[in-house]
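Quarterly update from the structural biology core.
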Amino acid sequence: MSVHNSAFMKAARGEAVPHTPVWFMRQAGRSLPEYLKIREGVTMLDSCMRPEMIVEITLQPVRRYGVDAAIFFSDIVLPLKAVGVDLDIVPGVGPVVAHPVRTLQDVAAIPDLSADDVPFITEAVRALVGELGDTPLIGFAGAPFTVASYLVEGGPSKEHAKTKALMLGAPDVWDALMRKIAGIASAYLKVQIDAGASAIQLFDSWAGALTPHDYERFVMPHSTRVLSSVEGVPRIHFGVGTGELLTLMGRAGADVVGVDWRVPLAQGVRRVEGRCVQGNLDPTLVFAPTEVMLERAAQVLEAGREAPGHIFNLGHGVIPSTNPDQLARLTDFVHEASAR
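Predicted structure, tokenized:
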């Protein structure tokens, strides 16, 4: 078997598969004791810039679970850090930006990204492709709206009030910022693909804060720009709380649309208009009795059969306190149940 003919790649292309492929968002990370050990004394951003650490952390869940794809270990703000934006990832808080964006001058001060800014990414991806063999590597980037929200708010936000105020009140600044971020994201994805990544995922974690009208007018064109820049590999588009946006997110250019756990997958399949789907077990179900978790997983698998292709995943990232053994049981179940 080759990467091209793996279950993950076939499902992403809408082809017949030997079993439903499975991977987990945030599978490389905080729920694994081996991850916590290797990260001791190393900041998040530093760990994202050390090729040997990126490789080891990316491989850990593949070894432990036997998942059908690896997700590149990094962070969505890493490209901003690489071009010189003054930011840090504060433990317990998230990305914090020293000088939030307010004006056209602020936007102009953000450099564009080139491969020379992220040589450690190229090195890590190449090493991973060599280590992974037939297992595909998913590269990723933060979508323009989500990255913009950090730059405008100065850090994480529940309301995104400053972001929406800029979007609606200073559309020229907003458009310039979104174009800047779309260019950085496109370049960052190209680096990963050129180094050997088999697929990409565009994370629009905070897009669910928008109305469909505002998403379509102010955000979708820029996500489309990023996704249309990607050639030759499957493109996954995912957001949280995006049930009302799924149709538009598919139209933005995705081959596969991620569906979070709030939307029954059968409805998600209809909303994405004939595209493949990814998802969407509630991440908290790993804390339920195993038989309950597997019963719900079986329902997700059943609903996924109605799509041209289905990649099993959680409806958002792995919760840090998750028992890794539960994810191992879940992976085995998905493989066995779907193969039957």
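The chain has a mean pLDDT of 97.
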